[in-house]
Amino acid sequence: MSTTTPSKLEKILAAGHFAVTSECGPPRSAKGELVDEKARVVGPYIDAVNVTDNQTAVVRMCSLASCIRIKQLGFEPVLQMTTRDRNRIGLQSDILGASSFGINNVLCLTGDHQRFGDHPNAANVFDLDSTQLIQTVKLMRDEGKLLSGFEMDARPQMFIGAAENPFADPFEIRVLRLAKKVAAGAQFIQTQCIYNMEKFKLWMQQVVDHGLNEKVSILAGITPMKSVGMAKYMKSKVPGMDVPDDIIKRLQGVPKENVAKEGITMAVEQIQELMECPGVRGFHIMAIEWEEKVPEIVERAGLYPRPKVD
Amino acid sequence: MIMAKPKPIEEIIQEIKDFDKVLVAGCNGCVAVCEAGGLKEVEILASALRMYFANQQKKMEVGEVSLTRQCDKEYLAEIKDRIGDYDAVVSIACGAGVQFMTEMYNTMRIFPGVNTCFIGVTDEKGVWSERCQACGACILASTGGICPVARCSKRLLNGPCGGSSNGKCEIDKEVPCGWQLIYERLKELGELKRFEQPTPPKDWLTSRDGGPRKMTKEESRL
Lengths: 310, 222
Fold this sequence. Notes:
The structure holds 2 protein chains of 2 kinds.
Chain A: H1 8-14, E1 19-24, H2 33-42, E2 48-51, H3 63-72, E3 77-82, H4 88-100, E4 105-109, H5 130-143, E5 159-164, H6 171-184, E6 188-193, H7 197-209, E7 217-222, H8 228-237, H9 245-252, H10 259-275, E8 280-285, H11 294-300
Parallel strand pairs in A: 1-2, 1-8, 2-3, 3-4, 4-5, 5-6, 6-7, 7-8
Helix pairs in contact in A: 4-5, 10-11
Chain B: E1 2-6, H1 9-16, E2 21-27, H2 30-33, H3 39-55, E3 61-67, H4 73-76, E4 88-91, H5 95-104, E5 109-112, E6 114-124, E7 127-132, H6 148-151, E8 168-169, E9 172-176, H7 178-189, H8 192-196
Parallel strand pairs in B: 2-3, 2-4, 4-5
Antiparallel strand pairs in B: 1-6, 6-7, 8-9
């Protein structure tokens, strides 16, 4: 597979390796060192680190600035961008700025509605949706044009990603929607956290049946459970999350002091099982406020050391 | 009232050309007042469609009706015995009417015949302009009865911006600067104090930003 950008993530995938990404949520303050600390913890164990964009509509340090910090530490950032807070002018402008700092991965998202966040009274933008943002980045990169048709003398070099939730309803449109994102230009997909392995494999089978795995690299979303409470919360409170009762039962079956350890083991087992799943090209490990566990998960899953690419 | 504008007839033809019997359904509410979707416009559109399809030598029966309102079930029900005679309906009510008719007659194809534009007023015969964006939390008391949400192009709450020039908006010399109007009005009322007070960020939750809206008046329910 030939590469389209200088992105290290793209090169890893093109070389046929399983890719490993993780996630860093910037602080709810101006404390930039916090981003650096998180990046240093996970950086050596993964190929690229996503930086969330005001996730769940809670104000945090901006993704672009955090990505620049991470890049300057020598790690590879994935710029998450939602269309909730910026119109096409702001989005295109930030893509140009990111590229100027050598940020070569973007994850195009619509973003959670602001009613879920800490500023429910805010106006929203949604000038574009995630699929349109994918099209926009592709247009900028491949044709060197802005949405206005203006021709740029230097193009942003972005490896284009998107998210997909195999567990949202209705199930039968999930693959069609993925196909739409791929048609728009998505090159990699990071999925929602997977707990229902059976349903995920069913979705993956449809992805393969549609030949989408030839066109896009699917990174399976893995989030270790820290506690029984977290599992129950994810099951009942987080929209679009599918947590089977077996997961909760297994966590309940170990002594309280071992629950977190069991959660890590489950994540490792999941990765190992999904390595055998046709179409899965890598793993996106979202250890929510538990970044220090990413190295252990990667190592135990047999994914360390990370391959070197030029 | 809600203002609408007839769609170009080519757009309507494109949607209905493969049917044989089409009903043009008007609404005698808002869209009749702005001369886009009332009885008169039903007759004009139906005639134009008949003429077009006759020229094309395409068999097309075009029926006509105009309802008191399309946003109430009782009026929509008036065509329940007739609607089945047609293959499709072109509703020239506002977007709410088109959708409500679709909900009521969900086996029918219902196509919009107008573009719904805004909530506004009749400036003079044949001229209409916007006044309200239904933000759900009216601030007209503090702005001299002139709405900055609807009438400032940037919907500023502390305007005017630097683009205001000779009382006109930077987007178009024909568009009055909403904030110039507010300022003049507050001055006239001796209420410039209101202008001098910074207005804090607005709660947009009651506006479309907060998601699809619904209201219930308990005492009116049956």
